[in-house]
Amino acid sequence: MDQLLQLVLAGIATGSIYALAAIGFTLVWQTSQTINFAQGEFVMLPAILVLAAVKFLHAPLPVAVLLATGGFLLLFGLGFKRYLVDPMARHGVLPLAIATMALSILMKEAAKDGFSAEAQQFPSLVPAGSLNLFGATLSLRDIAIFLVAVVAITALQLFVTRTRTGRMMQATAQNPGVAKILGIPTERMILLTFLINAGLAVLASFLISPIYLAKFSNGEVIGTAAFIAAIVGGFNQVRGALLGGFLVGLVDNLAAAYVSSAYRAAVPLVLLVLVILLKPEGLLGRKEERTV
Amino acid sequence: MNRLSLASRIDLNLATLLAGGVILWFVPATMKSYGIYVISFWLVMSIAAMGLNLTLGYAGLKSLAQAAFLGIGAYATALMTAKGGVFGPVWSWPAAFVASGALTFLAGVLLGFPALRVKFHYLAFVTLAFATLMFLVFRNEQWLTGGVFGFPDIPRPTLFGIQLNNDLAFFRFLLVVAMILSLAMWWLLRSPWGRAFQALRENPLRAASLGINLRTYTLLAFAIGSAYGGFAGALYAPMVEFIDPAPFAISASFVLLLTVVVGGQGYFLGPFLGAAFSYVLPEVLRVTGGLYLLIYAVLVLAMLLISPQGIIGIVEKFRETRRQKAAQGMRDGAKALLGTGS
To answer: Which terminus of chain B, N or C, has less C-beta within 10 A?
Structure first.
């Protein structure tokens, strides 16, 4: 029982990171029909950038964090939209999806060749201690991850539903044509979702790297998990992506303990297939929403 | 008019294919074994890409499992023809080849049936799950596949009593099989079946109203495309004589998808060009050391930005502008003749 509880809590912690990546994924999909196969690499890279800034520019850690965050937002928020998505978007979903696949190879290889092929320590803001809860040991880092992720997602949700800009963003996602007619600067709103996506990726990166170490190949696992989380929860919703993230984190952790560690990677995918066969619109998805 | 130009394009495909076959028969005679290996590898991957081109380019279905089908074909052939396998050398290579194709065809039907019942693009997710699962099976079931240590000593086939151990002899054998598979694909695409696939891609609603059974045809396209993956695997195993799970990973399926799109999806010769881009170019780039994948990814991105229709798209665009220029020239000539030009 204690072990189960511990696994569940750890699963929720990893799940909240998957949720961050999955939410970015769905946001970008909603506003621009971009299936970003490089989402995992988006989460991998910021931590590597921080370490690279420390190593090559001899920047102190806070400066390196700022530099990496700014550089990443510029390059993979603004640059990604303007120089990859915009020129490719009018040719349909597939060529763009393929282009993001190529981008994922590029980011992975650049991190490997430009920085290091080895896993690197990444400094954690939270001490390594642990807490006892109903007999289960819970690391402080897991708690911190969960709290930071929940705060970030709640803030995002409030921004999207309660502020004027957030509502304009929603309108752009739901019907770009009408939104434009009503005077919403749709282009700027789409750009905003790309920046939010990049920001969420940075956050996820800084949260996960102290645990899993910063490594060029980290994106594979995170990308698949985010992808599954987004679809399981319902492709069109922030809430769905959140639920999907927690679910994938949980299933992943429980499968490693109770099914078989050799086949753990397949278990979330089985969940995915079951969900799409039984409830194709996702757990929280709505049927009437726009299909592509 | 439209029909005529289509027919001439397809005949151009056939002519290119046959000419290419003749050239490839003679060219490698002067090459060293590494060169022969590279073009053999290119041919095998072209077959796998050709299958995916049918699935993606003609039927419009996204399969993320083509490398897994390649793996199924390769391991099935290895298990049936090598001494080290649990079954031992029970079958000859041709039998193993047919069995590999049949096995992957069946897998395609079993995967496609439930997925296509729901929604067409869900096939992508189902194949993603399948590809991950197959990779884990290849890696973990050591008693069957040798796991990460690989499966050694896969024999080259014997044909009419001749053991094809010589690299050149094996390449020519590969070429003959590849030509047969390509011709079969060419015939398939021209047949009413192939036309139905294309009708589905262009306008599924209209195709359905013309009496084409959407589900059956898409399922068939996917299953045949998968079978080509299995055929390619049956050739891959004796070519390398040693297989391990790495080339059948999910990333390999992504690269195959990339190959088809870069070559030009929906064009008969696209997979050959794409495979040259994805499998020959990295070999050439090996001189750059560890950077070759990086350069490859940059080239793919540049390629897609220039022409989202792939390499063939560039050729087509060029031909289109020439045709328009010629038409414009004729129009100008006619105007001058009539004396109405300004």
So the answer is: C
Per-residue pLDDT at A140: 85
Rounded to whole angstroms, the Cα distance separating B302 from B307 reads 9
- Flag whether pLDDT at A292 surpasses 50: no
Alpha carbons within 13 A on the beta-carbon side of B303: 29
B85's enclosing H/E stretch is none
pLDDT confidence of A291, banded at 50, 70, 90?
very low
DSSP category for residue B54: I
- Smallest Cα distance from B248 to chain A, Å: 15
CB contact under 8 A, B136 and A105: no
Instruction: Please report residues of B whose CB lies closer than 8 A to that of A113.
Output: 290-291, 294
Answer whether residue A190 shows pLDDT above 90. Answer: yes
State how far residue A58 is from chain B, nearest Cα, in angstroms: 26
Angle at B24 between CA B23 and CA B29, to 5 degrees: 100
- Among chain B residues, the shortest Cα distance to A230 is held by B125
Nearest chain A CA: its distance from B37 CA (Å): 25
Residue range B47-69: average pLDDT? 92
Could you tell me the pLDDT band of residue B298, with boundaries at 50, 70 and 90? very high
Nearest beta carbon to residue A95 from set B115, B254, B308: B308
Q: Which residue has the higher pLDDT, A207 or A260?
A: A207
pLDDT given for residue B163 in this prediction: 76
Q: Extract the tokens encoding B229.
A: 């993956």
Question: Per-residue pLDDT for A290 more than 50?
Answer: no
User: Alpha helix locations (H) across chain A?
Assistant: 2-32, 39-56, 61-73, 80, 86-89, 93-114, 140-162, 164-174, 176-181, 186-212, 218-233, 238-258, 266-278
Name the token pair of A174: 């739901």
pLDDT category at B210 given cuts 50, 70, 90 is: confident
Residue B37 pLDDT class (50, 70, 90 cuts): very high
The per-residue pLDDT of chain B, averaged, comes to 88
Instruction: Name residue A214's beta-bridge partners.
Output: A120
| CA B70 – CA B275 distance, rounded (Å) | 15
Which residue out of A101, A112, A224, A260 would a mutagenesis test of the B interface target, given it has the greatest number of B Cβ atoms within 10 Å? A101
- Give the pLDDT confidence score for residue B6 in this predicted structure: 56
Closest CA to A198 of A52, A81, A33, A30: A81
Could A94 and B62 be called an inter-chain contact, meaning their C-beta atoms sit closer than 8 Å?
A: yes
Residue A280: its chain B contacts at CB < 8 A? 118-119, 122
